[in-house]
Every structure is written in C-alpha cells, then in structure tokens.
C-alpha cells in the first residue's frame, strides 16, 4: 500500500514537472478537442493587428489567423498578452499559435517553432516632411528611432540574423549616430512628428506601419527603397511537430490558392506574400 | 515720511507692493516663455504682427489677469476661494487639452467600451486585490508582532521581498514563472495575486504600526479583566488601531487602483490596456490616454470619498 502511495506521489510530481514541456501532438489534440484555436496577438500594430471601431480585433494577421482556424475547422479565440510575453516562449498551453508578423530570428527559434512564413515586410526609413534626406546614406550619423528588441533595432546595430529559409540578402546601408528605442514603433512616430530633428531624425520601421501613420495624418515621408525584406512567420510553442506540420500545410495551401495574396491586397494594397 | 502716518497705511501699501511685484514677475515669466504668442495674442490684438510687441502685450494682459485673480481671491471666504481655484484649474486643464486638437468624436465612439470593459475590469481587479491584501496584511502584521520565530521569519522575508522588488517584475515572475512549476494560471488571477502580495507587504507594515500605536495599557487592562489574547486583539486593540490604519490604507488603495494598470502587460483588457490600444488603430493616442486619465481620476475620487466615510465611522470616539 505504502509503495502504491509513494508511486502515486512520484507520478504526480512527474506529471506536474512535465506539464510545460508539451508532448507530441498535445497542441493539436487540445485544439481539435476544444474545437478552438487560441491566438495571441498584440493589438498595438495597425494594420497587422489592432482594435477596430467596434472594439473588435482586426487586421491582416487576424484575418490570416481566422482563415487558419477555418481550415482547421475550429473557432478562433484571441487573447492579447504583451509582445515580450509572446516571444518569451514556454506558453504552457495558454494559447496555441501566434500569427503576429514575427521574424524568425535565431534567438527566437531557440524558444519557438516557426512552421510557416506567410509574408515579407519591407523595412523602410521614414523622415519628417521637412527633412532634406532623400536616400538612406543621408541618414548616417543621425538620431534614428525604432522599436526596442526587434529586428529593426538589430539592423541598426548591424547584428541582424534571420535564419529562415528564403530570407532575401541585405547589406547595412546606414550607420546611425544614435539609436533610440521605444516600446512600439508607433511611439517612435509620435516623437518624429514633433518636428524634423526635434527628438528624432528618422524612424526605421515596417513600410505598412509607416504608410498607415501617413494615412492618419502624420507628417512623414518614406525613404525608398526598402533596407531589407524580412520574412514573417507563424509561431507555435516548441514540442508538437504534428501541429507545426498541420499549420505549415494550411499556410502553404493559402499561398497557393491566392488567399494570402488577396488578404495582403486588402490590408497593404500590395502583394507582400512573395520574396522580393 | 514720519513714523506716525506710515503705520495705518502699511498694510495697504504692502498689499499693493506685493500685487505689483506679482504682476511684474508674471509679466516677465510670460514674456520669456512666450505663453501668449499664439491664441492669446490673436485674442488681444488680432491685427498686430506676431513679434515682440504682441508678445509683451500678451504677457502683460495675462499677468494682469493672474494678479487680479490672486489679489481678488483674498477678499473671499475660504470655501469660495477653494471652489473658485478648482474651477479655474479645471478650465485651464480643459484649455490645455483642447489645444491638442483632439478628435472628440473618436473619444465618444470609444468611451462606452473603455468604461464597460476597461474601467469595470480595473475596478474588479482592484477591489478583489484590496480585499485579499487586507487579509494578508493583517496576518503579516500579527506574525511580525508575535513571539514565534518561524512566523516572524516568514513575515519579515515576505515583506522584505515584495517591498523590495518592482511590482511589474512580480507580475512577470508570477505570470511567466508559475507555469514553469506546472501551475498555469490566467492573466487576471495572476494580476490579482501579484497586486495582493505586493500591497499586502506594504500594508502589513501599516497595520503593524497601527497596532503598536495602541497604548500597551489597553491590552494590560484587558488582561486584568481576565480576557484572553485573541479577544483582547479583536475587541480592544484592533478597533483602536483601525482608526490609525485607515488613512494610510486609503492611500494604498488609490495607489493600487493605478498600479493595476501593470496587469495590462499580460493582455488583460483593463483601462490602461484599452487606453494604449484603442488609439493605435487610427494613431490617435492622446485622445484615449487623456480619457483614461479622467476615468482613473474619477474612480480614485470615489475611493477618496469611501475612505473619508470609513474614517468618519471609526473616528466617532474623537467627536467631542
């Protein structure tokens, strides 16, 4: 009897310890049995993900996630933890998937799996309308803002590593005098709009985000061409290859039947789903 | 000037001198800050060129207004002074916000959701955390006052850690750390746990000082009457301590109301989260931030009112 109890305790401890490291098929099983795909998305990045006029989650990423859920035959539920909590990994089953325009960098790949790239974002510099800069080389030695801990900051620091297959080649064309980082790109735009050189000389961000800011009345202009194109991937927690394979298959089908191109045209007025 | 005739007029003179000094001081400050250059200058002299003359004129008019205000208010009753000062400051704040060119339609459109979802969640989290933290604080204070070494050790360790680390860090530790141990909790409970533990630690010290402030003779008198320890604490010491504890505890509650915004990092749709995200879609950040500031302020005023009622209840003994 005692032996059984101690065995039971040992099993309970083992079960408790093994919860975070998902077993094969666990995520897929959970999604299919709950009939629900839980998406984590940070609604601070219009037009990828934001709260619309009806206070509903909306945007390109949300539409892609809805389509993935539809093809899995389940409902989509959205939760909104902060970006750094999503990228920290070890989701512990709180959510199943991130369709968050995430760049599959080497450091992130240690925490998360990246089963499928769904589009490519051009990264551009934006300057104030009053600025005399016309090309990237004009920004050498200037104060440049970007989001902190993101690929744009890594590019400015010249240590960007994207280890995804099919990543377009790029060179570092700008040597900033000073890099200022922000919690999100939109805060950097707020600093740039104050005036040319008031706090920032330029912001380095995703072209769609810059265009969205300009559309909403920010006095900015885009420096062409793009500094680099970054592949953006769906992310899932480590440890469920079956779920990863399923997601990869669905995204591949969405590439092939034109669904992704259609959504890209809807939100970005351009087809960003193919590598440039 | 002889000594005799200077005495009766001294008061009036000094008031006048002070008024002139205030006037000149403000005029110089306004001129230097160029406060009146925009709207004010156009109001005073619509045709004048925007230059130094307009700048000085605007500064003089503004300074005259301020001086008349400061001097004039002195002649009124205390209550009237307070009310007028509040009204003036609110008008100033409104003018300040109006200068941002806010889109009021946008605010009106988002406000119902900000309140029904955001403010409701904020109040819910705060109230639950307040209730739990009070219990933790009482246990912590009693443990720290007890002669039991283990209880004292645990209490001091707990208070030291949770007062000694940032609340935001505790939120992350609880939300990201507990799943590593196999306890997967949702964002709202994680936030409530973090807030309760952090504020419980601060309030344990407040409770302890309140209990210690009750004169020792009170407990001794209880013992002389043959009452046992628990009863003395419940019926004699605590009722007297609460009166001392309430004002600083009310402070803590108001602070917690605002610190509950840190829960937004876990994606809880409370007031601060919505204030940050609702404006993002159309890049109208100031609109929602200012609105949320006003909502927070109104809620904390309600908390203040509740605190003063509780104070009045436990302060009955002081009424003579």
TrEMBL record, chain B:
One BP annotation, GO: amino acid transport
Keyword DNA-binding: no
UniProt-listed PROSITE patterns: ABC_TM1 (PS50928)
Main location: membrane
GO CC terms of this entry: ATP-binding cassette (ABC) transporter complex
Subcellular location, record wording: Cell inner membrane; Cell membrane
Keyword Transmembrane: yes
Xref: Pfam families: BPD_transp_1
Molecular-function annotations in GO: transmembrane transporter activity
Transmembrane intervals: 20-44, 56-77, 83-107, 119-143, 149-169, 181-202
Record keywords, A-Z: Amino-acid transport, Cell membrane, Membrane, Transmembrane, Transmembrane helix, Transport
Domain ABC transmembrane type-1 per the UniProt entry, residue ranges: 119-307
Database matches in Gene3D superfamilies: MetI-like (1.10.3720.10)
Membrane topology (UniProt): Multi-pass membrane protein
PANTHER family named among the record's database cross-references: L-CYSTINE TRANSPORT SYSTEM PERMEASE PROTEIN TCYL, MEMBRANE COMPONENT OF AMINO ACID ABC TRANSPORTER
Record family assignment: Belongs to the binding-protein-dependent transport system permease family. HisMQ subfamily.
Assembly behavior: The complex is composed of two ATP-binding proteins (GltL), two transmembrane proteins (GltJ and GltK) and a solute-binding protein (GltI).
Record's function text: Part of the ABC transporter complex GltIJKL involved in glutamate and aspartate uptake. Probably responsible for the translocation of the substrate across the membrane.
Name of the protein: Glutamate/aspartate import permease protein GltK
Organism encoding this protein: Rhodobium orientis
Lineage of origin: Bacteria, Pseudomonadati, Pseudomonadota, Alphaproteobacteria, Hyphomicrobiales
């Amino acid at each position: 009897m005692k032996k059984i109890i101690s065995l039971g305790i040992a099993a309970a401890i083992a079960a408790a310890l093994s919860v975070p490291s998902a077993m094969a098929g666990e995520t897929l099983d959970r999604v299919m049995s709950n009939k629900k795909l839980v998406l984590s998305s940070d609604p601070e990045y219009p037009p990828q993900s934001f709260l619309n006029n009806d206070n509903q989650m909306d945007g390109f990423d949300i539409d892609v996630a809805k389509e993935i859920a539809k093809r899995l035959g389940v409902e989509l539920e959205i939760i909104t933890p902060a970006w750094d909590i999503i990228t920290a990994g070890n989701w512990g089953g709180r959510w199943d998937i991130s369709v968050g325009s995430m760049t599959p960098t080497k450091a992130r790949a240690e925490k998360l799996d990246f089963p499928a790239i769904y589009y490519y974002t051009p990264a551009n510099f934006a300057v104030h309308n009053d600025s005399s800069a016309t090309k990237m080389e004009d920004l050498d030695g200037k104060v440049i803002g970007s989001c902190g801990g993101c690929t744009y900051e890594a590019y400015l620091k010249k240590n960007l590593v994207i280890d995804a297959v099919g990543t377009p080649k790029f060179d570092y064309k700008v040597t900033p005098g000073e890099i200022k980082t922000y919690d999100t790109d939109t805060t950097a735009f707020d600093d740039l709009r104050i005036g040319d050189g008031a706090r920032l000389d330029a912001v380095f961000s995703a072209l769609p985000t810059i265009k969205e800011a300009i559309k909403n009345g920010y006095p900015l202009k885009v420096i062409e061409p793009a500094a680099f194109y970054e592949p953006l991937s769906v992310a899932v927690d480590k440890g469920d290859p079956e779920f990863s394979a399923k997601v990869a298959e669905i995204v591949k089908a969405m590439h092939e039947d034109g669904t992704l191109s259609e959504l890209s045209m809807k939100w970005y007025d351009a087809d960003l789903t193919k590598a440039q | 000037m002889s000594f005799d005739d200077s005495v009766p007029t001294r008061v009036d003179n000094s008031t006048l001198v002070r008024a002139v000094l205030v006037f000149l001081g403000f005029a110089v400050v306004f001129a230097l800050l160029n406060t009146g250059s925009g709207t004010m200058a156009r109001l005073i002299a619509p045709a004048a060129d925007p230059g130094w003359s307009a700048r000085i004129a605007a500064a003089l008019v503004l300074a005259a207004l301020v001086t008349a205000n400061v001097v004039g208010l002195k002649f009124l009753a205390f209550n009237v002074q307070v009310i007028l000062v509040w009204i003036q400051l609110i008008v100033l704040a409104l003018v300040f916000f109006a200068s941002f060119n806010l889109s009021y339609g946008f605010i009106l459109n988002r406000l119902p959701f900000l309140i029904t979802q955001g403010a409701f969640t904020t109040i819910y989290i705060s109230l639950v955390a307040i209730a739990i933290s009070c219990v933790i604080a009482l246990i912590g204070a009693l443990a720290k006052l007890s002669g039991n070494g283990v209880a004292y050790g645990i209490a001091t360790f707990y208070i030291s850690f949770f007062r000694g680390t940032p609340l935001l860090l505790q939120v992350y530790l609880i939300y990201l750390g507990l799943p590593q141990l196999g306890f997967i909790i949702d964002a709202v409970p994680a936030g409530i746990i973090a807030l309760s533990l952090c504020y419980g630690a601060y309030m344990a010290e407040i409770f302890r000082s309140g209990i210690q402030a009750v004169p020792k003779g009170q407990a001794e008198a209880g013992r002389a009457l043959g009452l046992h320890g628990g009863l003395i604490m419940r019926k004699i010491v605590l009722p007297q301590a609460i009166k001392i504890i309430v004002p600083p505890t009310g402070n803590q509650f108001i602070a917690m109301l605002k610190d509950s915004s840190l829960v937004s990092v876990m994606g809880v749709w409370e007031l601060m989260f919505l204030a940050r995200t609702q404006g993002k879609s159309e890049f109208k950040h100031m609109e929602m931030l200012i609105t949320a500031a006003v909502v927070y302020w109104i809620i904390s005023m309600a908390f203040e009112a509740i605190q003063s009622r509780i104070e009045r209840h436990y302060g009955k003994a002081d009424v003579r």
